[in-house]
């Protein structure tokens, strides 16, 4: 990824959620660009990040922890945590932060956003940032390719994926594409006060995603159709009810319906978004 930076590479960028699927790639790309990186963690002593990253203790839900984390910071990569967002905005203003790039969700521009709990969560972060006076960029992905990690246990233990909607379509996006877009927004000019809806380069059914994972790990994976009630029960073991209901509703609506492909990631990074087949190869060890 080539960036023509407007950002002074001597100025610190704060990365929240730095050990997450997207945040860790943001850290890696910023380091590769020669940018000083500070990362926050509730438990900084247990964080495993590349050398050269300054790790500080902070919690977005506890605004009193933020002034120290934001001291001397020029820009911020922020994950969506509505609890304490007003405290974050106040601390960022006081610290003189010049730009915040938020990992949001495409659900905020979907039908029924005001009653969609996932959309509401992200809107409750977007709106205070818009009103803050701090330049912002909202990255709004649809389906994360990493959503398929919810199949890890059943593939490893039984060689099976159980789903009520095998023909449900999505355009899953690789987490590294999201990170590259975020880093472009942080380092290159022209992304302030702009939002980007992002997706992967192809509309795939769940059935096809399972086939691609099977190809990546070199062994068959069986697909078993189950009822929505059973899916809700199984998904509730590792996902909050809000996420379960929203995901099942989306799958029902997209059953047999190809989804539009967004070109935004390619437009920003200058190259095509990674395919799900590439994601499956990158994560093959997770499923073996």
From TrEMBL:
Residues in NAD(P)-binding domain copies: 17-188
One of the Pfam families matching this protein, by short name: NAD_binding_10
Lineage: superkingdom: Bacteria
SUPFAM superfamilies: NAD(P)-binding Rossmann-fold domains
Classification via InterPro entries: Ergot_Alk_Oxidoreductase, NAD(P)-bd_dom, NAD(P)-bd_dom_sf
Full protein name: NAD(P)-binding domain-containing protein
Organismal lineage: Bacteria, Pseudomonadati, Myxococcota, Myxococcia, Myxococcales
